[in-house]
Design goal:
The chain is of the alpha/beta class. The strands form two sheets. Strands 3, 4, 5, 6, 7, 8, 9 and 10 form an eight-stranded mixed sheet that branches. Strands 1-2 form a two-stranded antiparallel sheet. A hairpin with a 4-residue loop joins strand 9 and strand 10. Helix 3 crosses helix 7 and helix 11 packs across helix 12. The chain is globular.
Length: 375
């Protein structure tokens, strides 16, 4: 789900060549320490007001994404008046928006006054190798903001406010309202793509002959695995409406002989015959009871020597900022799920008929939990 500014360093570095995990952790501790020191040195009300301003910044980035500013600057710098005409916006309004963004090193302004892309702004291009444009469009949308205004209600009751506001659970709503569903799918694909390289660097997926990506969405992880592993085969499994157009995309990638698509619900059944079953960003969307039901469905399809790979955030025990602490509130507001600690995952797996064999941490916020059927 949403990605906090405190994890920007890890995500930017994880999107390229993956640095050693100890180095990333050391840089993270150093950054968090400096931020904590600043908050303790300034008066409390000043620190709190500064944190409040981050909400304004998020909406400013969303506006830049919605207006397509980065796409208009892809071919080179443009003067404010020229850029405003190309975007069809008010020049004064554009100048005021860009003034804030540039002050946070999002875009840059040349000495002649022209606006230009920089390394951070490149991530707002719709055609970038790594793009967060769709992430900001979804999490800055009126639909998503409207839900988060009810965070206090979710805390009071301990229950998601999304179903009450929308009249149905989120995934049902997304299926029925494809404008929201498509926007959500694109945002999740962007986040998934961003974490793929760190996961491939940390874990050897190539040792499995057949991989089943349960709830695999648009198949970004599995297609990348197969592209790097000549002998492996894969199955992407998700709701029929999600995977309807995937066969055509798979054909364009030349993977038709090795990658198949099946539609269905992981609450009912999943494909049999896999050596490894991947559940990436699935378990955290659901309550313990629902997550156990999903895992038991997977367990039924598995051979005794197969394994399940849960790719999710494992909540740390420290008190520093962490992506999982933000996303856990996203789960509270919009879904029935939650982020879980290592012990909570171990207990959930045990109740579902699995034994956790190892946990592999990655340079992204995610970890890979490997579990096998309990004998």
């Amino acid at each position: 789900m949403s990605i906090p500014l405190s994890n920007r360093l890890e995500l930017i570095m994880a999107s390229a060549t993956v640095p050693p995990l100890p180095l990333l952790r050391a840089l993270g501790w150093f950054r968090d320490g400096l931020a904590a020191l600043h908050r303790r040195l300034v008066p409390g009300h000043v620190a709190l007001l500064e944190l409040n301003m981050t909400g304004f910044l998020t909406q400013a980035i969303n506006a830049a994404a919605e207006l397509g500013i980065a796409d208009e600057l892809r071919d080179g710098p443009r003067q404010p008046a020229e850029l405003a005409r190309a975007l069809g916006v008010n020049e004064d309004g554009l100048r005021r928006l860009m003034r804030l963004l540039i002050s946070f090193d999002i875009f840059t302004q040349r000495r002649n006054g022209a606006y230009a892309l920089n390394g951070i702004a490149q991530a707002l291009r719709s055609d970038g190798d790594v793009t967060l444009r769709d992430v900001f469009l979804f999490f800055g949308s009126e639909f998503h903001r409207g839900h988060w205004t009810h965070l206090a209600d979710a805390v009071r009751t301990g229950h998601s406010v999304g179903p009450a506001l929308d009249g149905m659970p989120f995934f049902e709503y997304a299926a029925a309202h494809r404008d929201i569903g498509d926007m959500f799918d694109r945002a999740m694909t962007s986040i998934s793509t961003l974490s793929t390289e760190p996961q491939l660097a940390a874990y050897d997926f190539g040792r499995f002959e057949t991989l089943v990506d349960v709830g695999g969405g648009h198949g970004s992880l599995l297609t990348e695995i197969l592209d790097r592993t000549a002998a492996a085969r894969g199955i992407i499994f998700d709701l029929p409406e999600v995977v309807a157009e995937l066969p055509e995309q798979i054909a364009k990638l030349g993977l038709t002989e090795r990658l198949s698509v099946q539609g269905g619900s992981f609450f009912e059944s999943v494909p049999k015959g896999g050596d490894a079953y991947i559940l990436k960003h699935i378990i955290h969307d659901w309550s313990d009871a629902e997550a156990e039901r999903i895992l038991r469905t997977v367990r039924t399809a598995m051979e005794p020597d197969a394994c399940v790979l849960i790719i999710d955030i494992v909540l740390p025990g420290h008190r520093r900022p962490h992506a999982g602490k933000f996303i856990d509130l996203e789960m509270l507001v919009n879904a029935t799920g939650r982020e879980r600690s290592a012990q909570e995952f171990r207990d959930l797996l045990a109740r579902s008929g699995f034994t956790l064999t190892r946990t592999v941490h990655t340079a992204a916020p995610d970890s890979i939990l490997e579990a096998r059927p309990t004998r």
